[in-house]
Amino acid sequence: xxxxxxxxxxxxxxxxxxxxxxxxxxxxxxxxxxxxxxxxxxxxxxxxxxxxxxxxxxxxxxxxxxxxxxxxxxxxxxxxxxxxxxxxxxxxxxxxxxxxxxxxxxxxxxxxxxxxxxxxxxxxxxxxxxxxxxxxxxxxxxxxxxxxxxxxxxxxxxxxxxxxxxxxxxxxxxxxxxxxxxxxxxxxxxxxxxxxxxxxxxxxxxxxxxxxxxxxxxxxxxxxxxxxxxxxxxxxxxxxxxxxxx
Length: 246
Description:
Helices cover 25% and strands 29% of the residues. It is of the alpha+beta class. The strands form 2 sheets. Strands 1, 2, 3, 4, 7, 8, 10, 11 and 12 form a 9-stranded mixed β-sheet that branches. A 3-stranded antiparallel β-sheet has the order 6-5-9. A hairpin with a 6-residue loop joins β1 and β2 (43-49). α2 (82-89) crosses α3. The radius of gyration is 17 Å and the shape is globular.
């Protein structure tokens, strides 16, 4: 782990206390940056959160949400690339392959639920997991091999909700089925494909704009997003929001 020791990770992930003394450990979450390179330039998929949401109302974001540990037990057509898996596992007391797999799977599941895009391979698929029945109905076996780890960020203390979010990326070519009416949860409205420059100018959270900058720089030097590249990690340390590479 470059530039970030294990103690720093453990501290960043440790419990924090909100007003009233309620413990607030950041919850694992994942978001997917879906990239379309048709037409000679890269576009990203963004969606506006409903204004009634307590967390980031009305902001443009990537599809994503909280990780469900049970997602790690859902069968897949292909596993994470070994270099990507090592990056997602990380270090610290909670570092496990099952946790990394659940995080990656949640990005794929949330992209289906919020945007109606099923990432994987066409083929017979069955599972008893309720949240994955859409993949079974449309004959898509979820696949993790296409995912690339782009960034990680922990919400600063004192917020309404706190997440330890991994930003993952995949190409639109990795989508096996696109549903015309969007995802079943309708959590995102105004789903749009934008250039990275256009996306930065929308009403996006600061961390999203920062990750877009990181993504643009990475694509400039590595257009195919090779596995195992250094990943920026943003977290509050010593009362400062810092960037380290992992």
